[in-house]
Amino acid sequence: MGYELHAEFSNDGETQHCQDGGVSWTRFVQGFARLAHPAICCGARQEKQDKLTDVVLSLEGEQNFKDLFRVGELIGHGTFGKVYSCSRLSGEEALCVKIVATSGRHAARASKLPAGERYDLLRQIASLRHPNIVKYHQFLQSGDFLYVVMSRCLGPDLADHLEATGHLKMQDVKELSRMMLSAVAAVHQHGLMHRDVKPENFRFKDLTTTTLQLLDFGAAKIADDVPKAHTVVGTLLYAAPEVFDGAYGRSCDLWSCGAVIFYLVSGHLPFQTSDVTMLRSMHRDPVLNGECLFRGEHWRQAPMGARSLVRGLLSVDVNRRLTADEACDHDWFLSFDEAIQANDDPLSPMNRCEGSRVKLADLKRTYFDWNLADSDNSGEDWGDSEPRR
């Protein structure tokens, strides 16, 4: 996920720093806790009326993480850390912890954001409470490691689910689309953009595969609808056209949602190529992005409402693209046309395009060859995907 560790905060006019060799993480997280929950003061224990799962707390001194949590099996790993199953010593709730180094070669990337914006970002991520967003419980530091504790999703991610089932009924597509858009709408209402919406970053809460949750906020950033200069970050075939220009707003998440819903309906992505120059041309091709976009048997069976929604999300013109709230209120979610045009038959298996996994970070070496707009971080803020679990 790549959380920022170079940080500073102000307490009664005093600026404190947290970097390799700087102030202890205890003081840093206590400052974070004051922002996330004003009732907590520096050095004070949590009051009885506060809920452990609702605030960000620090370990006292060098208290070992394992004194508070049972650490289980390794369930995933990525560039910035490993993910283990875990639970509190005082409870049995299914949790997981991402363990990230705070120094060395594979330390979580430092952010170039101003201190105020940095803390607003952390506070907003910690405060996200939505049935379709994974819940972050605590951020803890012990020694040279940061522990990010979150609820554990026991079901498969959406990509694996699609690969296993091979096809979806249109009613299931509609419900999954509704949950995805609801999660993104909540993220945007908190003043954030996710920047890496894709099937691998949606996971089912449990094995019933009824509740989908958005995870991996490592690329998240504070943003509004006004395009600003940002780093080119995300996953190649789900990234919005304007992302490659280096100037975009949170509407980039809606394009990504459109690409995912397109995949749910048809079994393939709207634009499939691992060549960035070709992809950018395809985005703006009036033929490929016209009615030709909805080719294939699955789209011929799909209701017009689904096509209308995807068309509104995959608008190259940001000003004409649906917002998250508009997408959630789309007529398709109020209609019952699936009873007539249900996609109940497995016409063809879901085809996972390998290009969909190409992280923009993997192509960083040719960043300037694409003549993309420079970014605020000079290409340093490349996203890291959530480990596969």
UniProtKB/TrEMBL annotation:
PANTHER family: SERINE/THREONINE-PROTEIN KINASE (PTHR24349). SMART domains: S_TKc (SM00220). This is CPK10 protein. Pfam families: Pkinase. The keyword NAD does not apply. The keyword ATP-binding applies. It comes from Symbiodinium pilosum (Dinoflagellate). One of its GO terms (molecular function) is protein serine/threonine kinase activity.
